Amino acid sequence: MQKTRVYLSPGMFGFATLASLEYFEHFIRAIEERFRDRGRAVEIRVCEVHPTASILRRAAKLARLVDESAGDDGGPIHIIGHSTGGLDARLVASPTVRLPGNAHCRLGWTSRLRSVTTINTPHFGTPLAAFFATVSGQRLLYAVTALTVAGLKLGAPPLAAASALVAAFGRAQLGFLEIELIDRAIESFIRVLDDASSRELRAWLKLLRDDQGAIVQLMPEAMDLLHAGLQDRAGLRYQSVATYAPRNAVRDWVSALRSPWGAMSAAIFTALSNITARLNEHYPCRSHDGSIEQKLARVLGELPPPDANDGVVPLASQVWGELIWAGKADHLDIVGHFPGKGGHIDWLASGARFNRLRFDAVLDRIVTGMVAGEQSSVAEQAAPPRPVIETLAPERGDVEQAAAAASALGAPPAGEPAA
């Protein structure tokens, strides 16, 4: 039996392995279980992309990884992208893409590509990118990234540093930021890790400082250019997962306030969510034809408010292709970072109350859609070729003969209305 190959592309806060922490650990395990239950062999790889490099650079790295590891057995290939990783996936799948360097020669495997799954992906941009593009926003991006790693690894980073981060968000939104204060907070997050993890995290933060191309590209105003040049591949299954955390859920979620870290993390999430909710009427982070709202209303049974978001990406911006699941979860819940047994750690309290039951439902839908993409491709290849009908311009004699035949049948001559 041919082996199925699945490639995961992480987003802005994502990575393959950092500080001995595997970002997609729970997600990979869930996919493997579902393929094993189907009696299928699957190989899953995570692309080590630059966290904030341009989408084109990230896509080129993804293309090289697939080309180098997909083998030549003809087995099906699937790409799953979380957050910005979903745009990487769409770009490498686009028949119009021109990747830099020799990466454009590494796309022979696209004939085996059967599905592209995007999870919490900013297809129409996010206001948070515009905030992170500012000088103070860049500093806070470093701090949030350091907090993410420390939070997922340890469960509860230093409260003093987290408190400084909350205060920094408030000052930044008022137009000023104490750089020295936020730098001390970053150092506090790094120091709680062991030496090896600290070195890895410092190197990771340096990558953020060296290249922030994706930050600018994810601004809602910039997404028009991406859509103008990006094209979906014919016959390929595109499916998406979209989530949101109710805006007032954190204040009403008593369990989040039972610990000092719970209250602090809830405040950080609220700050991120409030920035993400700042929609521009000219660039509203959704399509202009109303189709996204229809899909969301059909899946959810109701339409959440326009500013609904997962703390990083507006809800409507996350929809592309077939919407296979939509519900309450924050940006990292959906890839396995939610509270619960089995090593799950929730880095920020959003009040979405995402749990294992919902996680299993999401993974069921994703894998079912991937298999459906394979089956539709097989059916298309097995279908008999359609007859080719030539539509050549008729000769003058043919027109005259047709007119005579029509007259004999009592039909009006060409160009005259029927009685």
Structure description:
There is one protein chain. The protein has 419 residues and is an alpha/beta fold. It has 15 helices and 8 strands. The strands form 2 sheets. It has a 6-stranded parallel sheet with strand order 4-1-5-6-7-8. It has a two-stranded antiparallel sheet with strand order 2-3. Helix 3 (84-93) links the parallel strand 5 and strand 6. The longest helix has 27 residues, at 356-382. The chain is globular, with a radius of gyration of 25 Å.
Give the secondary structure arrangement, pairings included.
Elements: E1 4-9, E2 17-18, E3 21-22, H1 25-37, E4 42-46, H2 55-69, E5 77-82, H3 84-93, E6 113-119, H4 127-132, H5 135-154, H6 159-173, H7 179-191, H8 195-210, H9 213-217, H10 223-229, E7 237-244, H11 249-252, H12 260-276, H13 291-300, E8 322-328, H14 356-382, H15 396-408
Parallel strand pairs: 1-4, 1-5, 5-6, 6-7, 7-8
Antiparallel strand pairs: 2-3
Helix pairs in contact: 1-14, 2-3, 5-6, 5-7, 5-8, 6-7, 6-12
Oligomeric organization of the protein chains: single chain
Mean pLDDT: 84
**Rg of Cα set:** 25 Å
Main sheet characteristics: 6 strands, parallel
> Separation of termini?
64 Å
Number of strands: 8
Helix content: 40-55%
The percent range for strand residues is: 5-15%
**Given the structure, what is the number of helices?**
15
Structure classification: alpha/beta
Ranges where pLDDT stays below 50 over 5 or more residues in a row are 387-419
Basic shape: globular
Provide the spatial order of strands within the biggest beta sheet. 4-1-5-6-7-8
| SSE run | EEEHEHEHEHHHHHHHEHHHEHH
